Amino acid sequence: MPLYHSKLIYTASSADPLYDHVISTEEDGTILDIRPYADIEREAAVQMLPGIIVPGFINAHCHLELSHMRGMIPTGTGLVEFIRQVVTRRGAEAAHIAAHIAEADNEMYRQGIVAVGDISNVSDSFEQKGRSDLRYNTFVEAFDLMQPDNATAEFEKSNQIIEALHCKKGDYKSIVPHATYSVSDPLFRLIRAHQAPGGTASIHHQETEAENQFIASKSGSLVSFFLSFGLNLDQYHAHGLLASSVPIKAMSETQRTLLVHNTMSTAEDIQAIEDWNKNVYWVTCPNANLYIENRMPKYQYWLDTPTKMCIGTDSLASNWQLSILEEIKTIQKYQSYVPFNELIKWGTINGAEALGMEDRLGSIEIGKKPGLVHVYPFDEHKSMFLPDSRATRLI
């Protein structure tokens, strides 16, 4: 029966950390007991750890299939140019893609991640997911680039992809819309009609100002992007509203929904969406936002309104690593007012709830099997990770 002690244990299920406690687990990682160190028998073999212990991290948004594109796209291009480069440069030999997918999956495991909300537009990552030690909720994205006449064909294409994924025990899958600017109304209706009760939806949301411009007035760099690929936008009519209006208009108000990025979201956007659906999870990918657009969301907006924030890494095409610890460090570096215990919840239990895995993952509680991660060093006085803080998976 493994025993783990740390001066501070952040369980993600309580407002404050546990001080000077010991966690006992089954060999498979199931939490058996949590008690003060003073109550432990002296002869017990306790692993004494400096720093802190936290639950296994949840990566709420990733693109595992783009792992072979690490370092290929320059930083600071802006989203529209970034998308152009992904579309035109992602091709590679299957064996090369598979090797990088496997390494990225292993990298996440080493970084203390236990579950991933992963985007799939092709089936390249499916074999690795079948043998991975991580749990996956796979979102197969459907998009027709605002070509409503193609909606049915594009949905069927996504359906063929998702049927090729055979989920291992504990994994999930669903077809979801790609983004507010790439899915026509008919395709939104098809996706919604085929959503499973109790399932999860996901959509890229307010990642760039060009997105708001396109939705509101059919202007901005997304228009030239579509036209450069020979697409006709005659059937697309601007909403006169910002991109935050799209989920409200086109998606289910009862479905558990992940809104991803939200870099441009305002307090008014957030309140409108929260009024629409109380089961929304806001996913932030700070390092990817910096990589692509040199900006981050203003997290104070989410602290001012009761919301559920999660953390993702996005892809290795738009990040330097796949690590929730590094994402938290970035938030602490640029917006250090966010309470540390809140950041731990963002990186653990909120993500587990968003992916429908909170019954076993996300918090250190008796009966759960969340994974345990040791992080050291840690600034106890400031409640902050340090630049050289590292995550070590305990179980």
Task: Please describe what this structure looks like.
- With 395 residues, this protein is an alpha/beta fold.
- The chain folds into two domains: 66 residues, no CATH class; 305 residues, TIM Barrel.
- Helix content is 32%, strand content 24%.
- Strand 7, helix 4 and strand 8 form a beta-alpha-beta unit.
- Helix 12 runs antiparallel to helix 13.
- The mean pLDDT is 97.
Give short descriptive properties of this protein.
395 residues, alpha/beta, TIM Barrel, 6-stranded mixed β-sheet, 4-stranded parallel β-sheet, 14 helices, 24% strand, globular
Task: Give the topology.
Layout: E1 3-9, E2 18-25, E3 31-36, E4 47-55, E5 57-62, H1 79-89, H2 94-110, E6 113-120, H3 126-131, E7 135-142, H4 151-163, E8 172-177, H5 185-193, E9 200-205, H6 209-217, H7 221-228, H8 245-250, E10 256-261, H9 267-276, E11 280-284, H10 286-293, H11 300-304, E12 309-311, H12 324-334, H13 340-347, H14 349-354, E13 372-379, E14 384-393
Parallel strand pairs: 1-4, 5-6, 6-7, 7-8, 9-10, 10-11, 11-12
Antiparallel strand pairs: 1-2, 2-3, 4-13, 13-14
Helix pairs in contact: 4-5, 12-13
The CATH superfamily of the largest domain appears as Metal-dependent hydrolases
The CATH architecture name of the largest domain reads: Alpha-Beta Barrel
CATH top level class name of the largest domain: Alpha Beta
- Work out the helicity level: 25-40%
Query: Which range does the strand content fall in?
Result: 15-25%
Structural class designation: alpha/beta
- On the 0 to 100 scale, the average pLDDT is 97
Major sheet summary line: 6 strands, mixed
Strand order of the largest sheet: 3-2-1-4-13-14
Count of discrete domains: 2
Cα gyration radius (Å): 21 Å
> N- to C-terminal separation?
12 Å
Element pattern in H and E: EEEEEHHEHEHEHEHHHEHEHHEHHHEE
β-strand number: 14
Q: What oligomeric state is this? A: single chain
Shape: globular
Note poorly predicted spans.
Answer: none
Could you please say which CATH topology of the largest domain applies here?
Answer: TIM Barrel
Count of DSSP helices? 14
